[in-house]
Specification:
The chain has 465 residues and is mainly beta. Helix content is 10%, strand content 46%.
Length: 465
Amino acid sequence: MKKVLTVILILSSIIFLCACSEESLSVEIAETGADAVVQGADDFSTSSVGENGVLRLKDNHLMYFDYSTQKDYVICSRANCKHNDESCSGWYGSVHGAKGLAEYDGRLYCFIYDEDDYTLKLVRMERDGSERKVISKISCGDSTPGTWNLRQDATEIYYAGGKALIILGWIYNPIDESEEELETQQCVAINLKTGDITEVTEKDKEDVRCNIDAVSKDYCIVNLSGESEKLLSEKAFYKKFESGDFDNNKNIKNAENPYEAYYMNYSAEIPKWYKFVLFDLNKNETSVLEEGNLEKAIDENGEYYADFQPFYISGIYGEYVIIETFKETNIADEGVRGVSENKVYKWDFKNNKKELILDIDNGYVFDAGGLEAGVVVDENKLLYLKRKSGMKADYYSYNLDTGEEKKLYEAERNVPYRIAGETEDSFIYYTSTDEKKLMYMMKKSDYYKGDFDKSIRLKALDEEF
């Protein structure tokens, strides 16, 4: 027994030493300006790419990967720090983790869950990790009937126009059995100087899905969607089911899972709506860009398979919004359904004028912008492909200033070189296997030539699926 205990103690010591072996920050994190648009890193798969390195969240630490040294650092400047408690600026203890780590306008920001007072805190610190300070709090709720609880999975965090933009997920706690538990999402903006919180979209007792579609230094566009009619909750369904309301519907009555059969049967029939909301970051004002009903997509066999918006917002370029429309068909040599036609427009939203700039047949613009809320790269370019035989494709760029289309290179058709971020002269990109993302860095000039042999491998940034 003593031998077993000794082994356990040794293993525990090794694990502890490994956990504390992360190196303190000894390199400089580059500074962006107030006009920058920065996406925050999360603790799953999104990193925040900067000029000198990459910010990310890893094993309860705020981390910085430096390009020149090819090393990870904990964002802490204290000598001999063990990086394992709240005395360390680069450590967080919440089991629900942290979100939105980024450098913006010379400071570091991150959202951290505090399980002691049930709040989501926006923390600010200097670029060396010093002067860590809470600048704003959002209550997570306490499950009191008639109130809201914050889901601890906030996603899509951006910093722009002096504000933090975040999508929050909420759960409503029913007052009694006459009400139902429901989930909704909303977007809020937090002033990085004052900590004041602005509700970009409302938090209603309605199942609303919310995404940030585009961000610039001046604007944020939020995409809202929901159902015009409400399906029965599982509890309400079984009350009607047991009362015989569905006896005439044999597909539901005889189903192994009646509620699932009900949901599949009726969800396709319920109309769904969308709304694009524009938030002016300078004026702190919200307006509706466009709203309407989603279109039901029918395949070649007459079967419903999805709901589509009439167009999709892909980014903001100056005073224009980049929007796209798609046509989908079965791609014969791929054996799957895919985009066969892709039209791209510049939308002067102030005057409601749309200008067609790309009409891509048998191809599409791919999401290469580094930011999830945008497809523009290298300040003014869109990247797209046109399919060729043999599972190959020609890759192109489009200059938004000049209107010039330029063929770049030929490569595999499945967009093997997806851009995850960029510096002034380089792209951070990845290729994928079944198990992980493989990360690389290369000069933009080499990328445009398709000269991927000149890439630098960033193995420390690989992400397992």
